[in-house]
Amino acid sequence: MSANKPVGIGFIGAGEISILHAKAIHAIPEARLVGLFDIMQSRAEERAQLYGCRQYDTPEDLVKDPAIDAVFVLTALESHLHYTRMALENGRHVLVEKPLGATVAEVEEMKHTAERLGLVCVPGHNMIHEDSLARARALIQNGDIGKVVSCYVLYNIHHSEERASTLPGMVRHILQHNIYTMMYLVGRPTRVAAMKAVRHYETLTKEDLAMVLVDLECGGIAHLCASFAADDLSADPWTFMVKVIGTEGTTRYTYQDWVEAKRGISHSRLYTAYQGTITNEDRHFVNVCLKGGQPLSTMEDAIISQKVVEAVEKSLAEDRIVSII
Ligand SMILES: NC(=O)c1ccc[n+]([C@@H]2O[C@H](COP(=O)([O-])OP(=O)(O)OC[C@H]3O[C@@H](n4cnc5c(N)ncnc54)[C@H](O)[C@@H]3O)[C@@H](O)[C@H]2O)c1
């Protein structure tokens, strides 16, 4: 890989999220989308044409192509480890969409493989790639808003049952965003207490709503909400809303600061910041591949995030508060 030539990127998986990553890569001069592979032939053809890139017959062809420097693993969770391993073992850097793995052990394996081979492997933790959150974090870390009292990371975006049918429930699919965003701002969690419900789905049996209370190492408490059940239509909507209240100040960030009156890929409105976070995340990834340095969100963060998800599942199954070990 040379600093004078764009980083060649290949997508494995060409579903909904690939649309945002393709738009991002096209906006980054230091990167080029070389090609993609998807198990669904018709989708692969359509998306390769749409993105103006080549279509590979097999994932092996993609990861072995010398034009590919880095692979984005954009498939469903079940195949993330398989493709991450394949890409790393063929000498390619990797960005893996969240949730990275089905278990903590899977995420640890990705981390150790990348370290052993000296390659970049980063989690697809896009929501924190946002200037307002960087400013919020600096305020918190400098002590400018005093001691952290509470942290709210709330996600309320209606999704159709058809769209939700290809995804896991809220705990596995959305809650990861709440967890890594919370950790980025206010640090590590120690204990969780969770509840979940089904309010909108008529045929799907997985949850469309999950809420979690989190004890934080810093002494404050966080409240996380992940919901596909309904949009918040109020005057001050908690669509994707982050708030940290401190003893000497407060900071807030919301998707509602930038809304376009058209559909997003699976949202009733286009929340401009969503694409922005993916573009910033991909630019950051390309920079880390070219110049080295620590990514904004690390594989260690992904491991802790997965531990929290598993603690939430235990809290739900056993109806009790669970410590994060
Ligand atoms: N960061 C975000 O905001 C965000 C948003 C949506 C989805 N995601 C994540 O992105 C990943 C993909 O989600 P999506 O919404 O694009 O899902 P999707 O169902 O729209 O697309 C997944 C694609 O992967 C393909 N695929 C499935 N198994 C495969 C395999 N074994 N080999 C090759 N291709 C395979 C499918 O044919 C499909 O085209 C998931 O991990 C999801 O959690 C992240």
What this model shows, in words?
With 325 residues, the protein is of the alpha/beta class. The chain has 2 domains: 7-124, NAD(P)-binding Rossmann-like Domain (Rossmann fold, 3-Layer(aba) Sandwich), CATH 3.40.50; 128-278 and 306-323, Dihydrodipicolinate Reductase, domain 2 (2-Layer Sandwich), CATH 3.30.360. Helices cover 38% and strands 25% of the residues. It has a 7-stranded mixed beta sheet. Helix 1 (16-26) packs across helix 10 (272-291) and helix 4 packs parallel to helix 5. The termini are far apart. The mean pLDDT is 96. The structure holds nicotinamide-adenine-dinucleotide (NAD). Nicotinamide-adenine-dinucleotide binds at residues 12-17, 38-40, 43, 74-77, 79, 97-98, 124, 126, 166, 173.
Topology (elements, then pairings):
Blueprint lengths: L6 E6 L3 H11 L4 E7 L3 H11 L2 E2 L3 H6 L5 E4 L6 H10 L3 E5 L6 H14 L3 E4 L6 H11 L6 E9 L4 H4 L5 H4 L1 H12 L2 E9 L11 E8 L4 E7 L12 E7 L2 E6 L4 E2 L9 E2 H20 L7 H20 L3 E2 L2
Parallel strand pairs: 1-2, 1-4, 2-3, 4-5, 5-6, 7-10
Antiparallel strand pairs: 7-11, 8-9, 8-15, 9-10, 11-12, 13-14
Bound molecules: nicotinamide-adenine-dinucleotide (NAD).
The site of nicotinamide-adenine-dinucleotide (NAD) has 21 residues, from helix 1.
Please give the order of strands in the largest beta sheet.
12-11-7-10-9-8-15
What is the annotated CATH architecture of the largest domain? Answer: 2-Layer Sandwich
Regarding CATH, which class of the largest domain? Alpha Beta
> Would you tell me the overall average pLDDT?
96
In short:
The protein has helices at 16-26, 41-51, 59-64, 80-89, 104-117, 131-141, 161-164, 170-173, 175-186, 272-291, 299-318, and strands at residues 7-12, 31-37, 54-55, 70-73, 93-97, 121-124, 148-156, 189-197, 209-216, 221-227, 240-246, 249-254, 259-260, 270-271, 322-323. With 325 residues, it is an alpha/beta fold.
